Design the sequence.
């Protein structure tokens, strides 16, 4: 169970995330919605450790993560899509994914210089990397350098690296933003597939309400950094606070 308690961050006088207390259970997909600037990405950054909270805590399965570095939180099981700055732009797609797989498995270095063991490890890592590239439909690009990929393929690669880490918690922040109509379904299919694995906790920031409606087991709404609604999708979408604050339905019209 991922849990935030009174999680808060201030930027000068502005409270971007305001005392958000929320728990996310394994086997559920929670959509996080809210207008631009509501604090959704900042909330993710506080969970993943990219930003340091002003107050409040983050914990995973009862273990306090507050104060840990982003990489320590990744080790603990939090999976945030890599940003391309974390990649090796001059290595190939396959090499990058293989490194991510290796990062989670530990390598041959533990067993000393046993060449057979290094070789068989390498084969196993490559096989796993191959399987992941197949899932994100990037196999055709495996020998291309990351720097040469078009935007949509870079986004797919971010998801590939996330899968390679085998996290307990998957955090997707507008995963299909900037993708064309042919690319977005690949990512959404992957999210659907991850959902079938009932042990995973999935958090999805998404503006497209049709996607949210289809995938979410639960919706939480952030508005001015505050959690203003939390519940079943149909119920939350129909609530006055969402109709007014998020979907922009004017009060007079209601
Ligand atoms: N590093 C920062 N320094 C100062 N202000 C920040 C910083 N990061 C975010 N903010 C502010 O915090 C607020 C929340 O921003 P955030 O990016 O979390 O919104 P969001 O809900 O993800 O919006 P969008 O839907 O547009 O992605 C905004 O007012 C933003 O300007
Ligand atoms: Mg955002």
Sequence:
């Amino acid at each position: 169970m991922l849990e935030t308690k009174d999680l808060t961050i201030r930027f000068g006088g502005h409270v971007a995330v305001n005392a958000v207390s929320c728990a996310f259970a394994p086997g559920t997909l929670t959509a996080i919605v809210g207008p631009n600037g509501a604090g959704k990405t900042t909330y993710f950054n506080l969970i993943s450790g990219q930003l340091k909270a002003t107050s409040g805590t983050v914990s995973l399965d009862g273990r306090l993560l507050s104060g840990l570095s982003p990489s320590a939180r990744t080790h603990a099981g939090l999976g945030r899509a890599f940003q391309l700055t974390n990649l090796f732009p001059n290595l190939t797609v396959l090499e990058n994914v293989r490194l991510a797989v290796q990062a989670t498995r530990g390598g041959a270095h533990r067993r000393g210089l046993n060449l057979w063991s290094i070789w068989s490890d390498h084969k196993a890592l490559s096989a796993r990397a191959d399987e992941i590239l197949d899932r994100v439909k990037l196999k055709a690009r495996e020998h291309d350098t990351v720097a040469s990929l078009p935007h949509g393929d870079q986004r797919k690669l971010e998801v590939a690296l996330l899968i390679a880490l085998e996290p307990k918690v998957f955090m997707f922040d507008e995963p299909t933003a900037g993708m064309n109509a042919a690319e977005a379904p690949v990512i959404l299919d992957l999210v659907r597939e991850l959902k079938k694995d009932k042990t995973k906790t999935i958090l999805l920031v998404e503006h497209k309400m049709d996607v949210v409606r289809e995938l979410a087991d639960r919706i939480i709404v952030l508005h001015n950094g505050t959690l203003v609604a939390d519940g079943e999708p149909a119920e939350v979408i129909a609530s006055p606070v969402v109709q007014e604050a998020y979907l922009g339905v004017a009060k007079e019209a209601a």
